[in-house]
Write a structure and sequence with these properties.
Layout: H1 6-10, H2 21-37, H3 45-68, H4 90-99, H5 107-127, H6 147-150, H7 161-197, H8 202-243, H9 264-270, H10 282-292, H11 304-321, H12 325-340
């Protein structure tokens, strides 16, 4: 039976000097309230330290509750001692603190663990018939839609009549849970002062903890709805990362070849070495470019005047070589004229 004595619910089962069970729950609960009501960013180091400390306190309290066997499915809610009712909140507080962790690389792992905590809390509340509700599905069964359709949200799915009825039912259930939570919080605020001051009797204290449990039932449903949506988004993001093409590494420009000089003396004489050293003579360069047709005068047709001058010069040279009297006489007269007239004679433009 889970009707343990008060000493069992407040002391370590081993009897050592370890923290009491009630102290562990109170510390973890207080850390959650501080994190939940702070105006500081949830990703700040101070907030995350409190989150981890709170999770450690509540996990240790959960292990002690399991060792003490405080709860059993074979007993009714009336059989649970008033001092043990608050330990029903352990999985709900653990789920809430787990959701406040902000490690992006482990986000899917955290939300799935929080889903397990909240569902375990609701399962225990249903076993004790604390509230009347339908237990939500497990995290792996958050949707009945086939995988291909979930991964292709752009494909419109027709809405059947049962789907519309289910949506309307879910909406009405959310409204009822919201109203119940507001009513529960109002009752809690009325008796909180009496319980915290220690002047309340056992019946008021029992109602106080049961109201807390009922309030967390409505919060657990809200958290599970949010978790189901986030799990779908995280899974789609993971699939998108796996299917996205990996960017190819940037292409590096080709390296220029270089040749080191053989010794320091050669480096002093030739400087940097190759390609400053000559690789061919001028004649070799001319022959190479002539064969390739890269010379400036290649492929350019000669004018008629230049051809006539060359023909006339060739004819005069031919006559001189054949001892033509007329050609020889013209050549001698030209030489005599050049002996008595300086170069540029009669050039009025250059004022010669």
């Amino acid at each position: 039976m889970a009707a343990a004595e008060d000493t069992n619910s407040t002391q370590n089962p081993s009897g050592s000097d370890a923290p009491k069970l009630s102290d562990l729950l109170d510390r973890g609960w207080k850390l959650y309230d501080e994190v939940d009501t702070t105006n500081e960013s949830s990703s700040s180091n101070a907030v995350q330290v409190k989150v981890k400390r709170g999770i450690m306190q509540l996990e240790e309290a959960t292990r002690m509750v399991n060792q003490l066997n405080l709860f059993s499915r074979n007993e009714a809610l009336e059989e649970i001692p008033t001092t043990d009712l608050k330990y029903l909140l352990l999985p709900a507080l653990l789920g809430a603190l787990t959701m406040k962790q902000v490690n992006p690389s482990k986000r899917l792992e955290h939300v799935q663990a929080a889903h397990v905590y909240f569902r375990d809390f609701l399962q225990r509340c249903k076993d004790y018939d604390i509230c009347s509700f339908q237990l939500p599905r497990a995290s792996e069964d958050t949707t009945d839609t086939p995988t291909e359709e979930r991964m292709n949200p752009s494909v419109p799915m027709p809405m059947s009549q049962p789907d519309l009825i289910a949506m309307a039912t879910q909406r009405q259930a959310k409204i009822e849970r919201f109203n119940q939570r507001k009513e529960t919080e109002a009752k809690l605020s009325e008796i909180r002062g009496l319980v915290e001051s220690g002047s309340a009797d056992e019946e008021v204290v029992r109602d106080f903890y049961l109201l807390h449990v009922r309030r967390w039932v409505t919060l657990a449903f809200e958290e599970i709805d949010s978790i189901n949506q986030e799990i779908e988004i995280l899974k789609r993001m993971e699939l998108f990362k796996q299917s996205a093409p990996q960017p190819s590494p940037p292409k590096r420009p080709p390296m220029k070849p270089f040749i080191l000089t053989k010794d320091a003396m050669q480096a002093k004489v030739f400087g940097a070495g190759y390609p400053s050293l000559a690789t061919m003579t001028v004649d070799e360069w001319y022959d190479q470019h002539r064969r390739q047709g890269c010379l400036p005068d290649q492929g350019i047709p000669r004018s008629a005047d230049s051809n006539a001058e060359e023909d006339e010069r060739a004819e005069r040279e031919r006559k001189e070589e054949n001892d033509d009297e007329e050609a020889l006489q013209k050549a001698r007269d030209w030489d005599d004229w050049k002996d008595t007239h300086r170069r540029g004679y009669g050039n009025r433009k250059n004022m010669g």
